Amino acid sequence: MKRLLTIVLALCMIFALCACGQSAAPAAPAAPAESGFTPAADSVLNTGVFRVAMECAYAPYNWTQSDDSNGAVPIFGAKDFANGYDVMMARKIADANGWTLEIHKMDWDSIPLAVQSGAVDAGICGQSITPERLETMDFSDPYYYASIVTLAKADSAYASAKGLSDLAGATCTSQINTIWYDSCLPQIENANILAAQETAPAMLVSLEAGAVDIVVTDEPTALAACVAYPDFVLLNFTGTDDDFAVDEGDINIGISIMKGNSELVSRCNEVLATMDASVYTEVMNSAIEIQPLGA
Fold first, then answer.
1. Shared-domain flag, residues 268 and 222
2. Is the dihedral of CA 94, 95, 101, 106 positive or negative?
3. Global confidence as pTM
């Protein structure tokens, strides 16, 4: 009997030690993707919350409004709402994947840093897919194709320009850190290039106020501007021999994503593959139609 009791006590100790060992063992880390990229704990791939950065001040791509009319989405940490083409496209991607969309309002220059650091999952903000940006971020397939155009006031000497050469000597500006300012303005002969503007609205205000003769931007921004400022004239030299020299990356607008996150790139591309340029144009036109004047 004494021997049996000893065996039972020994077995109890073994079971107790095993149980303690199991509870102390650390959880196995998530296996990295085939690319070697492991999503952060707060990534949409783990949480189902799609954190998207945009200026919320770049109509018709994105803007801020005071209510949820026309399908606007709440801005994270604010009382206002965001709407526009970028919001509409972000919502399509979120809905198709069963994610909750969360819009983060940020300055233009802060968005790439937020994407690179993982503070947000993506930048859907009218970014062109340039070689420079591809060095630090991955991009989806294009979700819009934007021609580069010029805006002038109707009473300007440049309002009847038929090509780039007709803009010679113009005083001009555009938005900071864009292909319009960095590449297009220097192509204008003898241009008087003023300091870049922090935002697209500021760029448009400088034209309306007469501080500049022209601004260079993309077609959707220009179309929306002509609604807000009826005295603007849109000059489009596309298809002529006297146009801005740009490559495909300058007019292809994509979704920026943290370098190496091929899974999220694929998820976005799968949704974009269900649409084509005609759908993009239709959505963009609807955004222009509902934009607040001056947004």
1. no
2. positive
3. 0.80
* 277-290 helix and 219-228 helix, angle to the nearest 10 degrees: 20
Is the domain of 232 the same as that of 173? yes
- C-alpha atoms less than 13 angstroms from C-alpha of 32 in its C-beta half-sphere: 7
Residues 136 and 261 in one domain: yes
Residue from 61, 86, 92, 64 nearest 76 by CA: 64
CB 247 within 8 A of CB 236: no
How far apart CA 34 and CA 195 sit, in angstroms, is: 45
Residue owning tokens 């049996």? 4
The reply to whether 185 and 63 lie within a common domain is no
Which residue's structure tokens are 């006297």?
A: 242
Q: Is 111 a domain residue?
A: yes
> In terms of domains, do 268 and 141 share one?
yes
pLDDT digits (tens, 9 = 90+) for 25-71: 333 344 455 557 898 999 999 999 999 999 999 999 999 999 999 99
- Domain residues for the domain of 257 are 47-145+250-290
pLDDT tens for residues 156-179?
999 999 999 999 999 999 999 899
- The total of structural domains in the chain comes to 2
Residue 12 covered by a domain: no
CATH number of the domain encompassing residue 129: 3.40.190.10
The answer to whether residue 6 is domain-embedded is no
